[in-house]
Structure formats: structure tokens, C-alpha cells
């Protein structure tokens, strides 16, 4: 394992400290653990809390700030945080208007968030949650725990965050988050695995001419292993799967070409070049594009493509001001 | 009970890399590390629990696991120990019937949280057959050690069985048929706990 | 070679197309080659042009936009662009106030930019250039072609760009660029090499316990190979070298913890955590921190640290509005 | 001259990977690829130049190299060919004296652009000794082929010499002493050009 770290056990703590030190005017770390909240708590708005395992940087701590999240909880690498940490985050950001948790669809995440929300409710905090499940890779999602939550989560943060910032009610913010979830789809692939610091070796081995299609964001193998092909052909395969899932034709979309952490920006731009040509040809109108590392798997090399169908409401919230370390608008 | 939990902690620590390796093959490779971290935290609390009743000890164990393990195993095992503790509240000894009740409550807790059933390639594939064997033995009048030995054997078979099936719950379900042929890490850690219980009861 | 590309010969062109498609409201590609200019030319200001080889994404095309560059020229990967391409960029952005080129200190870059500037002057365009040389790694820089220009270049773009946007003269913009150059220092390292698409194999091989200290941004080996050590010890080595070069004590600084392209953000945050502790201890005041991939070597894993001494003038220009794909403020 | 340039282009193309490899060892690994790209572009223009004087052909070659090679080699070799072309303007034949003049002009162009001298591990370490040998031979009355053969030998020795010295110009200078022991790519491509000239004159 070759990593720029100190002790394996300190990775999460040092990472969060480093994040907060990069934006001390915006972020504050809770003493109780790897929890990041806004430096200046804003009252009178629904507070948004997200979280999950570490290893997805800049998610989720990088999205704390004006127009997006109020708090983010980082578990151990690829491990959902514990209920007590989530509970501390909820308590720290809670306002009279309530708290909405944005949870990615993993058994562990849901169980831990549910327990935390129960604890918060016992304390009289108004709290609810939504579950993001944008990954179309998983084949028979009826026979699994459903689709995974991946890069589309960032758009839930962005859009629900914008509405919350305007002072909407918990019910309204939850409704718009669910609207994003209903309209966002993602699929990803990898040409290299990543290494969990605690595991010390890669999650899988790929030959020089192999890739994994349908990966999630936790270093696990994808839904199939295939021969490596040109970037355009890979992007086409992902886009076919995404556009088969729900109808995008004639719609306006926001696009994320997301790097998995170790992918050079050069390659993401090359992929984006094809994505635009593909969508143009299909009659899908591109409203805006984000290219970069938004939801990663440590140092994995690969990418995912996310499409979100937009209407006027979503467009205006998508465009609203955001001022966070990882996303400014 | 304190000694048993210490023995379990030692076993989990010993098998940490193996459990992580199993989890790496079909999912995210954190099961061993997280379980070991949780049981380390449990051990740190055990000495202060000397003299407490079994129920309290198990409850504290469960709460500690919930607040240190994270992932799926944290809430699942945590709830299991808490439920078992609730069942054994006030007891200082544990007979066959108590163990049956405790295991039943533990499994109930896991099912309440995880909404899984047997055959989905989870810890339940070790725990449920073990429970059935234990219950049958105890109800047939066998002594605790004999019945538990059969339960441990059933759990071991259950672990073997997980190799033959596809995961439909937990992270391993995302890779679909590719999970077949691999042993479930959670079933394996559940088997270790039962095996260690038998060796130390 | 494992890369998400199509044909090797098309890498630069598709990359630039993908960049421009990601921000069509901000960027335009010239038909004559891999040159990016602002979508809406702004008159009445000194136009800034930068460039260099490709492979440093988001540099330089990602810094074209309000408050930073007016044009950027991308050569082949790690190869300075040719004079005719630079000349086309200069011609496209030139205003009555003149053009300032921001050139990194490499023999090839300087020769090609000088030839282009001569061509522009022949056409009556007022043009000048500055040379960025922030890399303190090279030991006896007196006996080489001098120090390399690396990540500090982004701060030259930012600060000179802000002054140009305000309508300052060519002489004033050049002076502030040179002030940044005089006050900015960088040093970098790598734990993996990168692979030039055309070369097809890594620039060097490192064992699992080795690293290169003092690397540039062109995939070349560093000034020394050392045993890998903890992130904090590496950062300390780089910071010692940087703070030995010019005096930062008692000064306010802007910090860049820059990823080389394949480094996960997790690791950059861990490094940043130490950088802040180190600077605090030394009595160097941190004014602002940028953590991310700003000046990369394709997919190299590693990082560089940049410090810029600030005074009131530089602070206000550092903070001024920037609206480019890769840097918003 | 057209045939000679085509032969040089073929040689550079043949040695592309080797030149890249040499550049990879001490710098950024683009010398072979870029030179080949440049000479491909030159070849594409040569047929249209049939019947033109040597000066024009060399000037076009230089301009094409400048606008296609990039990096250091583009302006350096580009300027060299342009300067040589200026020297041979109007000529349709080239004798020994012409070649001496052309090479002198070429080297002058390289030095004007790159501000290097011999001993800095650059193309000059092949070109300068070659020039000295050529000039000596021609001035001593040797015929062109004999003098050029000595120049090629001197260039080859110059390439060998680059292995023994530290780079103090160009990208290889950044790695300091670590450049010692490696052969300079630019000196190598310069040697190939002279060698091919000799074989085709
Ligand atoms: N819904 C569920 N019900 C019961 N057990 C489950 C469930 N989901 C996962 N498991 C068990 O949890 C184990 C994985 O635990 P762990 O690796 O700690 O959590 P995570 O999957 O969140 O990384 C699996 O091997 C499986 O036995
Ligand atoms: N200042 C200089 N003067 C003469 N030749 C030089 C100079 N700098 C570099 N060179 C030559 O250029 C060669 C490298 O060319 P190339 O790889 O194409 O350019 P770059 O170094 O820009 O990547 C070196 O091997 C050396 O022979
Ligand atoms: Mg996990
Ligand atoms: Mg796991
Ligand atoms: Mg080069
Ligand atoms: Mg080179």
C-alpha cells in the first residue's frame, strides 16, 4: 500500500482536520468526532445533514456551507458513521424548522441514520430523511437492497440545500430532495481498484486490458468485468444504461462527469466531449455540466456519469448561490 | 460472561485480517477491522462491569458496538447484543433456556433492523440454523454444552452454505451472481462468536 | 498503459473540446488548434495569455474566464505549444491595452513564446511576458536554466488577472505579476510516475517503499529518490526547503496544497493538516488555503506545497472575483 | 535535398521510440514523438517543393518544424534549418564549403535561441565537434564525403560524451547529477541527421 498518510488509524481524523483548516471561516469540527458543521450556524432554516463512510472526498464535508449542507458526518473509510456521531451532528445543526438527513442507500447507512434520528426525535428534534439511490448499474435491483446512492447525491445536496436556504419547510425541502432523487441517474466504471488504508491492499486486481463496469463508490468490484475499450465506447455503454432507465429525450439535464479520485482531469474532459455529442444526438438538452472529483472512491481511477432531469424549479435551485469548499456557484 | 466476551474479542482480533479479506472479495473490505475496533472498545469497558448482571453486560456490549463499529455490522450486532441483554436482565447465571431466549431475541433484533431472512447470504445464515439446533437440543433435554456444540456445527454449515448462494442483502448484493462462490464475512464472524462461546462456557 | 482515452493522437484536441463543452458560456475554442479563449472577449483591459504542454489540467484552459486569463494555449502533452498557436491566441485576445503572456520557465516554453510575441509585435500588437519560476527543488539553479515554473503559476494568473480586469496598464499588470513571482515558492514530490500517452509507459519506476522528491510537472524524475515516509515528514521536508529559500516568518501567506492528478483529496487534506500546524509553529500566518488539483502531471500521485507572501495589494487582488471553470472566488 | 530530408524523416521515424526512451530517462519523454510528428509534416510538403532551390527547401523545413514540433527541439531545429536555408538561398547544388557555411549558420541559430554552449549535454555536443571536423577536412581540401564522414564520427563521439556529463541546459538539468550516465536525446537526433546526410549525399 502506497499512500500519503501517517498512521492508518488517524486517517479520518487528520483528513477532517485538514478540511476544516482549509476553510476555517466556513467550517467547524465538532470535538466529539469526525463531524463538520458550518462555522456560523444559521437559524430559521431547515438544517441538512449528510454523511457516510470516509473515502468519498470532497463528499460530504466539502459540501457544508451556504446553499448546501449544514453538517456532515464522516465514518471510518467506507464505513457508515455510528448513530451517536450522526446524532451529535443533528443536535449541533438542528433549528426550529427541523433537520433533513440525506442518506445514500446502503443498509449500514440507513440503519445508523435511522437510529440517530430516533435518538434526535426522543430529544424533541424534528427530523426526517431521504434516501438517494441513483446508481443504475445494479441489475435486478428488486432482488437486492435496491440501487446504491452515488454521485447524484451531490445534486440532492445542492438543490435541497438551495431550497432550505430560502427558508422552506421541512416537508417542502424533503419533497424537492425526493424530486431530485426521482430524476437523477448515475453509472460508473473503473480501470483500477482503490486501497482501503485499513485493508492495506486493493479491493480487486485488474489486468492491463481489463476494466470493471458498474462499480459503486466503496472499492467493491462492479457488476461485470470487461475488456478495456476506448473512452467513447465506455461512455456510450454507461449512457445507454442511464438513458434506458428513465426517459431523458427532449428534457433539459444537468450532467456530472465525476472522477473516482485518481482519474486525471484530462480524461474526464475527453469523456465529457463524448457525453455532449451523445446527448446532442439523442435530443437531450444540456443545461449545465460539472466535470471533476465530486464523489470519489479514494484513489480509484475511473469515472461516473450522472444525468438529472430539470424543470424550472430545479433549474433555479441548481443555479442558486452555493459557497462551500467543494462547490461554489 | 466477561471472560466469554474477552475471548470473543480475542478471536475477532485474531481473525481480523481474514474477515477483512472475505469482505474485500465481495464488498468493501472493512468487516474485520470494524469488528475488531468495536470489540476492543468493549474490552476496555468490561473490567468496570465486574459483578454486574449478564443483562447489563450484554447491553453495554451492544451499545458499545453500535457506537464504535459503524457500517452494517455495528447496528446489527449492536442491536443483537442489546436485545439479548434485555432478555437476560438481572440474571447472573445463564442456563440452556436462557441462551435459547437470548439468541432468539438477538436474531429478532437483527431481523428488525436489517429486514433480511435466511438464504440472503448474511450472518443470519449462520445464526438461524444455530438457533434451531440449540433450541431443538435444549427442548430435547440435552445439556447446554451438547446442544451448543450442535448449534456451532450448524453455524459452520451455514457459513459453508453462504458460499453457494447469491447475496441479496448488504453490499455484496450489488455484484449479483459474482458473489456466488465467496463466503459471507458476517456469517463467519457470527460463527466465531458461537464457537468461542462454546469453548468458554 | 491504462488510460481513459480514444486515439493517442487525439488526446489534446478532445480534451480541449471537452473542457469548452463543460463551460460553453465562458469558453470558446479557436478553430486553428488547441487554443481556448473567453467566450466573450473583453475590451479595455490587458489580455492575459498563458499556456504550455497539455497534461497539467485544469491548467491552463481551466483558468480562462473573468478575473483570470483571456486565453490559454495547450501544446502536445508536456510539450510547449508552437509559436503559431501562441500567436493565434495573442491575436484573438489582444486589445489596445496590450497582451501579457505568463510563461513557465522552461527552455521550450520561453523560446516558443518569444517567437510568438515577436510575430505579434510585427503585427503592431503590444505584447510582453513574465517568466514564472517558483520551484525551489532544483539545487544549483545558477548552473541550470533556473528554477521551473510550477503550481505558483496559478497565483500569477489569479492576481495579475484581477489587476488586468480592473483596467490597469500593461506595465502595471506585468509589475504585479513579477511581484507575485518574487514572493511565491513551491516544492513537490511523487509516489508514482505518470505515463505520457505517446510514450505509453511511465517516466520512471518506483518501488513500493520509494518516492521522488523535488519533481516538476512533466513526469520527469525528481532531484532525489528517498524511502517513503509518513505524509507529515514529507510535508516537513518540502516546507523546510521552501521556508529556507525566502523569509516567510511573520508574513501572511496564501497556501496551495496541490494534487498532481492522481492523489486522492483525502491525502491532500491530511497534508494540509500538517502544513497548517507547521506554519503556525513557525509564526507564519495563513491568510487562505487552496487544496486540490490545480497544476497536475496527468495521473501522477503526489503533491506540491506553494506559499505566497502577501501584502495588502496582493490580498485584495487574491480575493477579487474570479469566475473560471477551475477557480471561482 | 528532398531525398535527403525524406531519408532523415524515415530515420527519425525509425528511431522515434528510442529517442523518446532516452528523453524519458532524464526528462519528459517527448523528443522522439515530437520530432517524428515534425518530420512527417515536412515530408508532406516536400513533393510540392520539387525544383525549388536548396535554400527554400530548408527554410520551409525549418518553418514546418517550428510550427509542428513544439518543446525545445521545435524552435531549435526549426531555427537551425531556417538559418541554413538563408545561407543556401538560391543554390541548387551544395559543395563542401556550402555545407560548412550552412552548418555554421545552423549552429549559430541554435545558440542564439537556446543560449547554450558545448559541455551542457545538448544537441550542440554532437553538432559543434561535427562542425569542427567538417570545417577542418574541407579546409584541408578533403572531398565532401570524406570530411563529412569524419564529422559524423565526431558527432557520434559527442553523443558518447554526453553520457559522461551533467545537463546544465534543458529539462534534464533539473535532475542535476542524476543526468550523468544517460545519453542526450537531442545530441542523438542531431547525430542521426548527420549520419543520414552522409549516407544520402
Ligand atoms: N440486512 C442485513 N441483515 C443481516 N445481515 C446483514 C445485512 N446486511 C449485511 N449483513 C451482514 O453484514 C456483513 C457485512 O458487515 P460490514 O462489512 O461490517 O458492513 P458493511 O456492509 O456496511 O461494510 C455481511 O457479511 C452480512 O453478513
Ligand atoms: N538550451 C538548449 N540549447 C541547445 N539544445 C538544447 C537546449 N535545451 C535543450 N536542448 C536539446 O533539446 C533536447 C530535448 O528536446 P525535446 O525533448 O524535444 O524538448 P523538451 O526538453 O522541451 O521536452 C535535449 O536533449 C537537448 O539536446
Ligand atoms: Mg462498510
Ligand atoms: Mg463491509
Ligand atoms: Mg517536452
Ligand atoms: Mg523532451
UniProtKB/TrEMBL annotation, chains A, C:
The lineage of its organism: Bacteria, Bacillati, Bacillota, Negativicutes, Selenomonadales. Homodimer. The dihydroxyacetone kinase complex is composed of a homodimer of DhaM, a homodimer of DhaK and the subunit DhaL. InterPro entries: DhaK_1, DhaK_dom, Dihydroxyacetone_Kinase. Residues 7-327 form the DhaK domain. GO terms for molecular function: glycerone kinase activity; phosphoenolpyruvate-glycerone phosphotransferase activity. This is phosphoenolpyruvate--glycerone phosphotransferase. It catalyses: dihydroxyacetone + phosphoenolpyruvate = dihydroxyacetone phosphate + pyruvate. It comes from Anaerovibrio lipolyticus. GO terms for cellular component: cytosol.
Amino acid at each position: 500500500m502506497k499512500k500519503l498518510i501517517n498512521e492508518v488509524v488517524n486517517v479520518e481524523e487528520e483528513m477532517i482536520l485538514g478540511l476544516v483548516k482549509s476553510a476555517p471561516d466556513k467550517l467547524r469540527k465538532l470535538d466529539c468526532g469526525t463531524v463538520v458543521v458550518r462555522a456560523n450556524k444559521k437559524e430559521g432554516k431547515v438544517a441538512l445533514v449528510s454523511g457516510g463512510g470516509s473515502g468519498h472526498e470532497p463528499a460530504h464535508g466539502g459540501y457544508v456551507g451556504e446553499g448546501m449542507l449544514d453538517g456532515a458526518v464522516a465514518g471510518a473509510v467506507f464505513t457508515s458513521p455510528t448513530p451517536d456521531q450522526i446524532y451529535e451532528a443533528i443536535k449541533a445543526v438542528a433549528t426550529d424548522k427541523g433537520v433533513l438527513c440525506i442518506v445514500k442507500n446502503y443498509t449500514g447507512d440507513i440503519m445508523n441514520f435511522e437510529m440517530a434520528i430516533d435518538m434526535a426525535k426522543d430529544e424533541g428534534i424534528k427530523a426526517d430523511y431521504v434516501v438517494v439511490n441513483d446508481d443504475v448499474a445494479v441489475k435486478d435491483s428488486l432482488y437486492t437492497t435496491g440501487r446504491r446512492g452515488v454521485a447524484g447525491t451531490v445534486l440532492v445536496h445542492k438543490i435541497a440545500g438551495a431550497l432550505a436556504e430560502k427558508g422552506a419547510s421541512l416537508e417542502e425541502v424533503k419533497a424537492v430532495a425526493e424530486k431530485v432523487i426521482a430524476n437523477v441517474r448515475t453509472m460508473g466504471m473503473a480501470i483500477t481498484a482503490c486501497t482501503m488504508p485499513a485493508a492495506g491492499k486493493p479491493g480487486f486486481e485488474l489486468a492491463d486490458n481489463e476494466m470493471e463496469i458498474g462499480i459503486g463508490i466503496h472499492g467493491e468490484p462492479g457488476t461485470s468485468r470487461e475488456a478495456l475499450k476506448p473512452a467513447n465506447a465506455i461512455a456510450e455503454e454507461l449512457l445507454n444504461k442511464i438513458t434506458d432507465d428513465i426517459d431523458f429525450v427532449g428534457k433539459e439535464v444537468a450532467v456530472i462527469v465525476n472522477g473516482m479520485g485518481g482519474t486525471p482531469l484530462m480524461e474526464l474532459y475527453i469523456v465529457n466531449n463524448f457525453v455532449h455529442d451523445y446527448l446532442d444526438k439523442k435530443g437531450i438538452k444540456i443545461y449545465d455540466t460539472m466535470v471533476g472529483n465530486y464523489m470519489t472512491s479514494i484513489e480509484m481511477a475511473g469515472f461516473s456519469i450522472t444525468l438529472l432531469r430539470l424543470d424550472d424549479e430545479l433549474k433555479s435551485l441548481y443555479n442558486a448561490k452555493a459557497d462551500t469548499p467543494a462547490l461554489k456557484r | 460472561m466477561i471472560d466469554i466476551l474477552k475471548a470473543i474479542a480475542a478471536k475477532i482480533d485474531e481473525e481480523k485480517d481474514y474477515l477483512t479479506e472475505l469482505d474485500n472479495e465481495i464488498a468493501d473490505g472493512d468487516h474485520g477491522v470494524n469488528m475488531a475496533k468495536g470489540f476492543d472498545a468493549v474490552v476496555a469497558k468490561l473490567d468496570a462491569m465486574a459483578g454486574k448482571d449478564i443483562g447489563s453486560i450484554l447491553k453495554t456490549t451492544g451499545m458499545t458496538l453500535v457506537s464504535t463499529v459503524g457500517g452494517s455490522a455495528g447496528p446489527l450486532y449492536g442491536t443483537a447484543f442489546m436485545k439479548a441483554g434485555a432478555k437476560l436482565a438481572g440474571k447472573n447465571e445463564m442456563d440452556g433456556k436462557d441462551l435459547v431466549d437470548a439468541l432468539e431475541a438477538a436474531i429478532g433484533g437483527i431481523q428488525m433492523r436489517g429486514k433480511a431472512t435466511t438464504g440472503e447470504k448474511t450472518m443470519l445464515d449462520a445464526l438461524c440454523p444455530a438457533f434451531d439446533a440449540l433450541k431443538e437440543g435444549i427442548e430435547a433435554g440435552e445439556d447446554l454444552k451438547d446442544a451448543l456444540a450442535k448449534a456451532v456445527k450448524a453455524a459452520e454449515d451455514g457459513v459453508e452454505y453462504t458460499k453457494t448462494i447469491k447475496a441479496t442483502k448488504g453490499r455484496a448484493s450489488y455484484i449479483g451472481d459474482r458473489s456466488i462462490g465467496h463466503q459471507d464475512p458476517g456469517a463467519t464472524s457470527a460463527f466465531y462468536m458461537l464457537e468461542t462461546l462454546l469453548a468458554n462456557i
